[in-house]
Amino acid sequence: MNLPTGHCLQNRKYQLLHVVGQGGFGITYKGILHTEVKGPLGKIETEVPISIKEYFFKDYCYRVADTCAVGVHSETGKLLFDKFREKLIKEAKILSDVHHPYIVNVLDVFEENNTAYIAMEYIEGHSLKDILEKKGILPEEKALKYIHQIGQALQFVHDKNILHLDIKPSNILIDKNDNARLIDFGVSKRYDVENRETSTTMLTLSKGFASIEQYDNEGTQVFSPCPDIYSLGATMYNLLTGKIPTESILRAARPLKNPSEQNPSITPRTEEVILKAMQISPADRFQTIAEMMEALDIPPVEDVKKSDTSREPPEENDDDTIVLSPPKQTARPDDEQTMKKKKKKKTWIIALICIFALIGSSVALLIGNNGPDPIELPPEIVSNENSDPNQPVTNELLQTSETTARQVNNREESKPAIPSGEGNIQQPEAGIRQGENPGEGNEELPELSPEEKENQYRGLVTSGKQKMNQADFAGAAGDFNKAKELKLTEEVIRLSVANEEKAEEKRIADKKALYEEKMTFGNYKIVRKKSTGRYGAIDDKGEEKIPCKYVSVDIAGEGRAFEREDKLFDIYNTSGVLVKSDVMY
Q1: Is the pLDDT of residue 496 over 50?
Q2: Given this structure, which CATH class describes domain 8-121?
């Protein structure tokens, strides 16, 4: 799956060394930038260590062996892959305006191998998630130092009308000078001067760290620092307790434990800041990062060493030669008022959204006990690879939260369906109105209004989700396909892909149910076929790799001896390859 060591990109401008991390959406490599440095006495060829992130959907993509290009398994997956690749390139360019001592600099964005790459400065160090796993909870003083540094970085990007939307310990690196550096703006959003969203990204929710408004497609359409404030508070909670907080959308049924219950040494002031930052209603949280930092027990000016890399990236000439320039000092943002535009008049609306969402999630939990067991969507739909597996997000809860939020928003203002454009492709024929019968011949059907299209679309999506819960994957596919004819959105593409995956999982489970598993054999399982009582071996997809035609099986060195009807044996190695036949054993 990974590119080989030594692989070059951009005509040998970049060379890959080894993989340093990977998740559901990408693979990160350590690499080398080959360039020339200009100095007062001339030029010199040099190698600069960098990180390169490759866009690679782990569950939908494969590596083409001969070319190293990225391929996609299905047409539905290809729609999703292509859409997000374009968004990744667009979103990565956001970082061209974001250079700060506590943010990792992006140097380049380019396309190659049928995918996209981001070249970033390389930071020697470990993520806070790694440190937490290896050393346990952080001392409060140390945690507050890192939070203060990340707070400065967030205030800086908020001043540019950018939200990060994925603050968590795994996205904070600690460099060799013990300074925190914020990474991964892959799901960030940028807003225009009127605080309206101008960029849309993939829906990625880190369970326990995402605010309740991030669970609603419309919850982050208007700029507010509150989602990042919630996530920063949740990060503090995790660093000081070692526990991932209860998901915001589940807290009506499963209240959040106070940090001091998990770690009695946490000071009351720090606990008060964490709990205020993590309030369910955005209106009850701090309204700016600066306000939150001021409430913490941190000196106004922190005397720390800046990283050697905390400078603007080198200037680059057209001839691909880097000119070294002196470090530039980035001003610290102190203006607490710049982020409060138009916020106050909408706080009661946001509060209503949260109240309805909490009531709805409680009802969904109670009703769910009388219906079929909920089926959990794949992590890529609602979470990333660092999610807590003990905190599932069910379709019922997501649907209830989404519905109640829309009801309140519709009271505020009546909105038509989103017109054709990015993420919403309207089709010329939307179908038949409810209650109408199709006409005969070439009779033209009346055009559906935007509101009717939206209602039909929403009904089909809801029906499809219910059928997924009931394991009716064919029926769900039909509903999602009809919904795509009405409006092709990121939501319905994701659900279609999830449905395909669940159908495939069931198909594999049904195939494996035909066998009794006996023991592991290399990458395979030695099995006994229930219908014939004969032995063989299957792979993880239930496919027979050693045919189930043998009377018995025994150990033969490092392989296995499978007994035939004629009392002779066939010897297979751990790769499932027949190495000897007609053996008397």
Answers
A1: yes
A2: alpha beta
